[in-house]
Amino acid sequence: MSTSSFSLSQRADEALRDNRFRIILKLLVWLAALYPLTALSTKILFDPLALGANPAETILRSTGDWTLRFLLLTLAITPLRRITSIGGLIRFRRLLGLFAFFYGLVHLGCYIAFDRYFVLSEITADIIKRPFITVGFAALVLMIPLALTSTRAAVMRLGGARWQDLHRLVYVVAILAVLHFWWLVKRDVTEPLIYAAILAALFAYRIIARVKKRSGRGSGFPSVR
Amino acid sequence: MPRFNDMPRIAPSDITPQGVWLNRRHLIAGAAALGGAGLIGGSAQAAQVIEPLKAATGFPAPSDPPSDKKLATTYNNYYEFGTSKSAPAMNAHRLTVRPWSVEISGEVSKPRTIGIEELLAFPLEERIYRFRCVEAWSMVVPWIGFEFNKLAALVEPTSRAKFVRFTTAERPSEMPGLGSPVLDWPYTEALRIDEAMHPLTLVTLGMYGETLPNQNGAPVRLVVPWKYGYKSAKSIVKIEFVEKQPVSSWTKAASHEYGFYSNVNPNVDHPRWSQKRERLLPALFASRETEMFNGYGAQVASLYAGMDLKVNH
After folding, report:
1. Counting beta carbons within 10 angstroms of the beta carbon of residue A98, is it exposed (0 to 12), middle (13 to 18) or buried (19 or more)?
2. pLDDT tens, residue by residue, A63-102
3. Looking at residue B104, which CATH number applies to its domain?
């Protein structure tokens, strides 16, 4: 059993190294990632009532949800490639992270337009006075340097270690993003709790791996390229 | 931008097209069939009771036309049926609204229990009110009912009656939302006696020319148009005249966010969001500036003369 799953993951890893296969897969990821936005835009333009009585709320919720989901997916790549031994999954991490940033920007844009009607004084007042907006805004601002240094050239320029230090900011971003959702809901925290639990699991995996490594029980993470 | 606001609107004259009046028996049969097919343990009696209501018209209406009936009956906060906006419309048919009676007690000379038929026999009036939710959205709803002070006159409040507390039905077998402890059930709300007796405060039995749909608080609810929506308790089973200021469910849940008065006030923000503007549903943009007392200041501002409304929010 273990041999066959090992060979399966090995085969998957090799497939991901095949340029043509990877390009097709990336195209599919692009299409899937853009689907929520396409669906929302189509409804806004042609069938607003399909978005319910409060279309702006639906759009804000949806773009916020997708920001969080892409953030968690990005953070799930490392555990996933350790667990499955499919090292090639790393090639999708940047794409997912950039989509998190993209949906975050759309989310902010919708808030500025629909909720605050472009009134700058109200927007700044919100950012200063309302903790859930403060943390949400901070999360997005902290994603800017990550998005800007997401190119291969930026990794070269910064050097791997410094680049990695900088990109650890994504943990802060994820915590702030979940907090943003948690503080927003009026009373029923079920949904934010689900995101928080997934994030906690992703953190726990990393912490356990690190502790194992320190205590010298093996190398912690199995080494994967 | 304006194109998003160009949504179909219902003209006041079309509020209740004859075609949508549903035969009560059909509706009960339909709901029972639905209950039998889809719900385990759902009461076969549970049903919406939708009947046309006769009501006098002529009360001054807001400048905006009434909201689309479908919006007002499918986008609701009624946590007893679930916390999402769509849950009440999906679950509320399980509420048995006949028979129904309201117990009126406390600091009154003639305490009594009043049946729904007797309430429906009051001379009814259509009141098209602005409705402003604390969540910064609003609608315009054509309610049908009568002034609360007429109900109070029946029981004769004593001089010790300083506040009125309203209690919503609590039926675990019919209300799936009661299983989650988001609020302290049963839901209670309260008004100061002069607020309750104000001619704008409406004992409400219908909307859009018909009896209330369950998700909107059937068979009898309160509507207090100058306060945030949650002050207008739904599916009322008990009305108590009391001496001390009661603590309502939302205030108990978060007193710094939901004060006793909860008057619509653009100058007092919810701690977590601004109340300066609102979205008149189904508009995409919150382009409307919220009015003090939801635009009913001329009628109600005097109730609060000399009070600091930031402290008494």
Report:
1. middle
2. 999 999 999 999 999 999 999 989 999 999 999 999 999 9
3. 3.90.420.10
